[in-house]
Design brief:
By secondary structure, the protein is α/β, with parallel strands linked by helices. It contains ten helices and eleven strands. Helix 7 links the parallel strand 7 and strand 8.
Length: about 270
Amino acid sequence: MTQAGWPATAETIDDPADERVREYTGLTDVKLRSVREPAEGLFMAESVKVIERAADAGYPIRSILTEAKWLPQLQPLLAARPGTTVYVGSADVIGATTGFRMHRGPMAAMQRLPLPEPRDVLRGAGWAVVLDGLVDHTNVGAAFRCAAAFGAGTVLVTPTCADPLYRRSVRVSMGTVFQVPWTRLADPGDLTGLTTVALTPDPDAPRLSDALRELDSPPALVVGTEGPGLDGSVLARADRLARIEMAPGVDSLNVAAAVAVACYAVRESGILSR
């Protein structure tokens, strides 16, 4: 059933158990969604801006779930994509469906695309950021945003890294996960054509600025999981080790902050113009 002023494809939802919105159920269960979404080939995009960025990047919209008050904001997106299914429900029904109150606007179930081969995203990328084993979706999203902000050509994530398309990662990245080409990389040491620069808090490692000055090819900045950092085998195989110099008494940065500092250092080093 639709109402006056609603898109022709809008359908009313008044039951949280409605099978039509099954893809939106249990969104607060991180373990379940982390398995379910890749298996079902979907991911969630929150807010009109993020949905637009995902759609503009080529990800098909499977459906949109929204309150009626957000329909006017959706009109440009829907006009450009006629036929998009829109489910409209009250705040109570949507909250019971998803498990939380949506404050950022509409939510869309998006179709995942096949991941490209690493060699394809590396071709012409210039330089890269490698996320090895990050487990926090917030850090993954923030790392993507930093990589995009400072012009990294690609982001590569290892098999043990949290999903960049998980709802929280997408939200924290502000949709930049759709701007920077990325894929999964089986081996963080397998980056032909780039010089791997592994970040470590080891006080004996060269300063990042010094390590970058010595490079004769574009870098791939490699950062490790929260807490333990990079595995010893990854450090041993890296072309260069580097540390971010900090004030006495501070031994490390949050991994996303480290990505921001390191990406800025690459941009300012002049290596990209050599």
